[in-house]
Amino acid sequence: MNRKSTKTIFTLLLASSMLIAGCGGNSNNAANNTTPNNTGNTPAATNSADDTALDTSPFTISFFGADASPNWNKMQDDVGKAITEKTGVTLEAEFDVGSGGGDQKIAMMAASGDVPDLIFAKGSLSKLVDAGLIVDMTELIDKHAPNLKKVYGENMNRLKYSLDDQAIYQIPTNMGVGQQSFDATGGFEIQHRVLKELGYPEVKTLADYEKVLKDYVALHPETDGQPTIPLTLNADDWKIMITVTNPAFIATGAPDDGEYYVDPETFEAKLHYKRPEEKEYFRWLNGMYAQGLLDKDTFVQKDDQYKAKVASGRVLGLISQEWEYSDGENALKAAGKDEYTYAHFPVTLSDEYKDHSFMQTGIDGYGLAITTAAKDPVRIIKWLDWMSSDEGQVLRTWGIEGKHYTVTDGKREVNPEVRDGLANDTANTQKETGIGQYLIFGARYGDGVKDPTGNYYTTSFPDQIVASYSAAEKESLAGYKATTWKDLFPKEDEFPVKETGALYNMPVPTDGKYQVTFSKTQDIIRKRIPEAILSKPADFDKVYDAFLAELDKAGAQEMEKEFTELVKKRVSLWTGKSL
Amino acid sequence: MIVKALTENGVTANESVTPRPPAKRNSGFWKSVVQQKYLYLMSLPFVIWVFIFSYVPIWGWLMAFQNYKPVKSFSEQKWVGLDNFKELFQDERFYLVLRNTLAMSMLGLIFGFVVPILFAVMLNELRGNIFKRTVQTISYLPHFVSWVVVGGIVYKTLAIDGGIVNDLLLWMNVIDEPIQFMSKGKYFWGVLTAADIWKETGWNAIIYLAAITGIDKELYEAAKVDGAGRVKQMFNITLPGIRTTVMVLLIMNIGHLVGIGFEKQFQLQNNLVTDYSEVLDLYALKYGIQISRFSYGTAISMFTSVVSVILLFTANGLMKKFAKESIM
């Protein structure tokens, strides 16, 4: 009896497991039977008589952000609570995880039509626009958003999507209007302890940079008992662009246009790898690897391993942007190891090139878009407008008066403990106060712009920047006779404002051959660039030339032509020039 | 369909002593339905589940012959004939990912069978009940660990500075300098298979252990009386006893050779090994869904399904002929 029931159970178990295993096989990857309910792109105008009055009844906005936001505290932080109290709005936010980017998640949204009310879609916006899921905000802004109009002012033209589709699908919120940078956060990084011991050597060219790392590692082959790593890069997924491929144009005097280099006169675009000077940059990395100065794990390690290495303090040099490695650096700050944090230098291939980091692009960023899923787009735009008001902006960047900042004689000042917390215990302070967590939720002025009270809108202004430097940082700066890192870099006024904006933001066609070719070239780049760097120095030319030939074989030239056309259209939309 | 086949299989197994004459087969079938109505009722939910999730979506295959745009309704879509398939079969990358898919699934098939069966048989030979259960529990725990975490563990274990595998090999003087396991394409298939074995052996052994439980204990006692040792018992009773289970699972898994998913590859790959790590599903994601080419993605998935069905029937036919075991 017992045996028989065991057998029955077993048969059933087998039957069900096989069903699950056997017949789940043909699941289609594409969620193919969903048709998004496209209710049209223009929301009905409201009948409300008073269009600017703020409704403060409880209201929930669902949101997806394409960037990870690890310190998001579900609006239970001080600033979040204040926002809910003043506007009635609660965000039901979801952010992409890990190295983020949102590509996969948003691709699924575009396929299924299942979108949140509000979305920060970054480079994937055009997918949603093409799927008819994004609302044109032109009329909404015109009727309900005086503050947004005020902040964007003469830049309204730049908010338009394209020459053929002049709708406003997103309001750029990841950058401040009128932004003047007071500090450099990119370039080539070297630890303060290295600079101090070597007596603040000149770091202008790749050769200088290489010599500094080489000299120091010869003196100190070990850091805290572990081998010292002279230079490491993060090649995990899209971050390969930030630390491996973008520095190629940064070090050779070209502005950031994503994967392209665009001639400022003719607007002809080509993949930036095709510039002969960039080949020399990669040759330099190849040399660094051959000499054992470039970390052997560079192209294998994952994002978290890279951050852990930075946090261990044994990496002498980085080639990156501060936001990219800040998680690791913050851990060093929290541990009080300031001498292991990094200084920034505008390193170039040779003296004839100028670092273009501070070339101004004008307003051109990623931002917020309202989707067709939003039941009350007017309420959302009004909320965004409030967030973009002077009150909202100060709340987002400064926090709450009395709690996070004080006003003495009309001058706003961040409380010392908050400033200290944000600099040295960033994660916890951000979770608690919410300062810096709501920057993308509304238009804002950039650093260096003053509000009607005569105070800066943001907390970074020259004094504040200097005040947040650690002792080690100040010491290094003094060694180079500078007050901020920016003093070492070529200034904004040395370059004309870019007529093309930041071209990595430019929407590109989402279907047809362009995307396929772009994906193919990306595959080739991400495979061959590491290969070229890791190859024997004697083989470098061969590998690199084969790489360029492979790009063209995959159709790069046609893709570049298509991109050139788009650039020209964009310039004529923004400037009125006919090209 | 499969449920029917199985229950019939079960029926024949139970009633194998009294074979029915073939002429009465039809009425015999209905008779058994009435007799076993509870079994049929219990399988009904699964039949419905299969129908909804596996058969209904098939109409979406039509997308493969269109230039599908999410916004338009079905009738507005543009029909393009076999264009998507032509493009697929002309892409060199497709053959590369097909090779990778087949290579990794073959490895998975071989090791995914041999190791769990061996493990189950060995586990069955253990005497101490507590020890046996502890080992079994520990061995199947990794099954519940997500591939994201496993990916991290694999990378840490195989790292060149401080990775335990390299440290161990260095210490044993097997190698002179650390091996970069994750940067060499030729190691990737091996690393992935090893990680898969670590993760799934315990779990996969459960079904074999269950099958072993179903073997009549009297057979072992009789064998003991006849003087068969433990090894002999293993080869003459245990292994033949689970033969049916092994065969059934083998056929099902052969049907899955091309549809192995992409989770493990996605977590373990890096830029240096993509020529060895990219599989069909990853290719469908990258060149289909991610760049909004839903039709192309559907064409790939359709190819996978059709090949799976062909493989399933071939395997089933071959097994029927040569091993006298089949699932249909």
From TrEMBL, chain A:
Pfam entry (one): SBP_bac_8
N-terminal signal peptide: 1-21
Keyword set, alphabetical order: Signal
Bias (Low complexity) ranges: 31-49
TM annotation in the entry: none
Stretches the record annotates as Disordered: 31-51
SUPFAM superfamilies attached to this UniProt entry: Periplasmic binding protein-like II (SSF53850)
Name of this chain's protein: Extracellular solute-binding protein
Organism of origin: Paenibacillus tritici
Lineage, broadest ranks: Bacteria, Bacillati, Bacillota, Bacilli, Bacillales
From TrEMBL, chain B:
This protein's record includes keyword Transcription: no
KW Isomerase (keyword) present: no
PROSITE patterns given in the database record: ABC_TM1
Superkingdom, natural source: Bacteria
A Pfam family that the UniProt record links to this protein: BPD_transp_1
Signal sequence range: none
InterPro entries: MetI-like (IPR000515), MetI-like_sf (IPR035906)
Swiss-Prot/TrEMBL keywords: Membrane, Transmembrane, Transmembrane helix, Transport
Subcellular location: Cell membrane; Membrane
Positions of transmembrane segments: 38-62, 102-123, 242-262, 294-318
Similarity field: Belongs to the binding-protein-dependent transport system permease family.
Name under which the protein is recorded: Sugar ABC transporter permease
